[in-house]
Amino acid sequence: MDGGTERMALRWFGAARRRARAREDDTRVLARVADGDAGALTELYERYARPLFAFIYRLAGDRGTAEEILQDTLLAVWRSAGTYQNRSSVSTWLFGVARRQAHNRLRGTPPPLTAEPSEGVDPLPGPEELAVGDDRVRAALARLPPAQREVVVLAFLDDLSHREIAEVLEIPVGTVKSRLHHARATLRGYVDDRTS
Description:
The protein is mostly helical. 74% of the residues lie in helices and 0% in strands. It has helices at residues 3-34, 38-60, 63-80, 90-106, 127-130, 135-143, 146-157, 162-169, 173-195. The model is unreliable at 113-132 (pLDDT under 50).
């Protein structure tokens, strides 16, 4: 093994170890939440509020509604932490809880016209916002059907794998791939139409 390949292998194994430790730590923190430790819930909030808010915001299209759904999510996590069975990562489980809370809140609500914040409101900008920083892309994303929007947000903004997305959405991996394929085609069409 040459030096470059060895360094890459060591970095990969180091990253894999860090992810495994983070997953174990998340599991311990969630167990503390299940035991009634409010400080542990705060730890989870500090770790996952940004990506969960970004996901919920893209589903709701409104900052105020997204904040309410995030609070609903935290309450649901507090109440149901004891049901976590370690079949997926804690982060995947949290996204599933957030998705269910969003669907409960948004049921019967017409989809948003745009996922843009109102003038002067900053929806926690960060890497997830920069990933779709182009106005054309954001407008196109808001026009996607909700099932496709969920998959795109989880894949590209929250960087979940196909398997993790399938767990969050409780659908087969093949359906995730199909929705991503259709969403990409739809997004490409929207962006192309606006540039013409």
